[in-house]
Design a protein that fits this description.
alpha+beta; 2 domains; three-stranded antiparallel β-sheet; 14% strand; elongated
Length: 102
């Protein structure tokens, strides 16, 4: 088996597993090895949470940003990491259910 990275018509990169004998241009039909879909994220809620994290970090203007160093990175990580990990856990649960026939 081989892993092929390809780009769909909308510009999204994907990885698929193919048989060694399959041509790479059949990657779209292979076994997908993608991360979970971000379509399930609550973008409005994340926008609110990011705003609140910036307030909590005390990042009100450019001076605050310059003084806080990694404050923006911390706010983004706090906001996005938790939600993305939930998607990975949901994806893993779905795989387990599919294997068990549930």
């Amino acid at each position: 088996m081989k892993i092929v990275t390809w780009t769909d018509k909308d510009g999204y990169n994907h990885r698929s597993m193919l048989r060694d004998s399959d041509p790479d241009d059949l990657a779209y039909a292979g076994i997908p090895l993608d991360p979970p879909s971000l379509d399930q994220l609550d973008w409005d809620g994340m926008k609110r949470n990011l705003h609140n994290a910036l307030v909590d970090q005390g990042l009100h203007d450019m001076r605050d940003v310059n003084q806080m160093g990694n404050g923006i990175t911390s706010a983004i990580m706090t906001t996005f990491k938790r939600q993305i990990l939930v998607l990975y856990k949901m994806q893993e649960a779905a795989k387990r259910n599919a294997k068990s026939g549930g």
